[in-house]
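Justification of computing resources. Each target in the renewal requires a structure prediction run like the one illustrated here; the chain below, 119 residues long, is used simply to show the kind of job we budget for.
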Amino acid sequence: MDCPDGELSILIVDDSQIEALNKEYLNRSGPTNVIAFPMREGEFLNISPHLIGDVVISVETAEKEGRMAGINMEKRFTQLLVHGILHLFGYDHEKTEHGSLLMEKKSDELLKMIEKTVY
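Resulting C-alpha cells:
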C-alpha cells in the first residue's frame, strides 16, 4: 500500500457495539462486519499525518460469516481487516461497479500475499 510509516488502530467488538457505531456514524440499522474510519481526509487531515485511521470488526459477525463460507474465523477476520484497510486508503465498493472491481482485485492481491506468509 506504499505506506511504510502508517499507523492504524483495530478495535474488535461484538455485534451490539458495532451496531451502535453503525447507527451513530453511518445512520444504518443493525450490526455489520467491519467499519472503517479514515483519518487522512477532512478537516483534521494534518493533525497526525501518520495515522491512517481506525478499523472496527465485529468478531461475532466475522465468526458467523466464516462459518457460512466454510472458512475458519482467522481467515474471515483477515479478510475483513484487509477490507477495512482498503477503505482507509480510499477504495470503495458501494459507489460504482468499477470501484467494486478495483477493491476486489486489490483485496485478492493482498490476501494472497498474507496467505503466503501466514498460512
